[in-house]
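step: validate -> pass
step: tokenize input -> pass
step: predict -> running
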Amino acid sequence: MNSLFYTGCFLSMLGLGQAWWIFNSNEEQLEPQTDIEQSCLDAGNDASCAVYGCIQRRFPCLPHSFVIDHGENYCRRYQNHFDLFDAAGQDWITRSQACMSRTMADMYRLPSTTCHALNSEGWDRMSACYVREGFCSIAWDNREALWQVFQVHDLRHTIRMWREIVEIAIGCGEQQLGRFSIWALEKIAVFRDK
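step: predict -> pass
step: emit ->
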């Protein structure tokens, strides 16, 4: 079958998960709850996962927050699964996490923001960093490692993340996207049948 068919099925299936992820769309301006701390700026420059906690303390957005639920969560998961990636995948993790930390440090410096803006910008910046740092060149060879990072058992977190990964993969070209989508559908089907 046509890889676009499988891709469409995959995206449709992930679209069902939207109910699992509800951003706080409250547009009320958040004023900083903390002053800018040098240690937080350093965390952004050092590609440290700590930058996410700094943002959350400065602009608290709970219960659903890209910063904690996705940014910090997956930053730590990449660290915990680093050895599962091949050399190119490890290099990609290092570069993409450094990109994310730098862009998140920019968000940390904001004079005010909204939860919706933090969530929306967080996803946009993550996608841009993944693509800029070469996701397309490492995704297929590191698919099993990515599967370990984005485990399906935690649907509230992973449905949105897998949707984002597929949207990023769309830019990789139809052949790679189709191959990746078929593989992911098979993995998810096995999980759902358990």
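step: describe -> The chain has one domain: 3-193.
step: cleanup -> pass
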